[in-house]
Amino acid sequence: MAPWVAEIIGTMILILLGDGVVANVVLGKTKGQNSGWIVITTGWAMAVAVAVYAVGRISGAHINPAVTIALAVTNKWDPAHGFAGWGDVPLFIVGQFIGAFIGAVLVWLAYYPHWAETPDPALKRAVFCTAPNIRNYPLNFITEVIGTFMLVFGVLAITAPGNNLAGGFAPLLVGFLVWAIGLSLGGPTGYAINPARDLGPRIAHAVLPIPGKGDSDWGYSWVPVVGPIVGGLIGALLFVALGL
Fold first, then answer.
1. pTM for the whole thing?
2. Could you tell me if 165 and 159 are in contact, meaning their C-beta atoms sit under 8 angstroms apart?
3. Which CATH number fits domain 3-241: 1.20.1080.10, 2.60.300.12, 3.90.550.10, 1.20.58.220?
4. pLDDT under 50 in the chain at which residues?
5. Could you tell me how far CA 16 lies from the centroid of its own chain?
């Protein structure tokens, strides 16, 4: 399998399970309605772990453009997993966005009867993409930078050569890292920390025939795209600068 195809599959799994847990919590008349933030953050953590286990051996499981860009800028190429030069960067990123869109469509189908049972359009949109609880674009941007800094720095630490503590548990540890980020830093913006995770499903929200869905909040959409890219770069550059 081509690595960029693996990125489609891995990111699809991420969004299917991640957006799926949000749908279960916020949509009307589901088994998990109103079960809360712990359920959402746990579901996202397990989504990341399963996605990384599924395709990590094929593509390295970036499943996040911020990770792909950060690794490329810091020359952390991975020829064994098809990530050997700048020519691979667009393929990986396009694959991630395609996978995110497909995953969001599958969530829409899985919860098809529940959209009409949810009167609040903001809750419907929340299944697909993030939004801040207090809308302040500069501070929302900083929150996403900090969260993605921690993600990329943490992933590089977990997967560092010679880190015998990780081994075959590395995907699960990355899931725990995402769990920690959600619990500790996810409150202000919903911790997108991944441009494909937010923008791909946001596009799906815009084009799918969801009853009473409202707008897709395009005015905010740049924050969970640009913020994670900046944060990922800072995390990777600092990791390299510290010689870790």
1. 0.97
2. no
3. 1.20.1080.10
4. none
5. 11
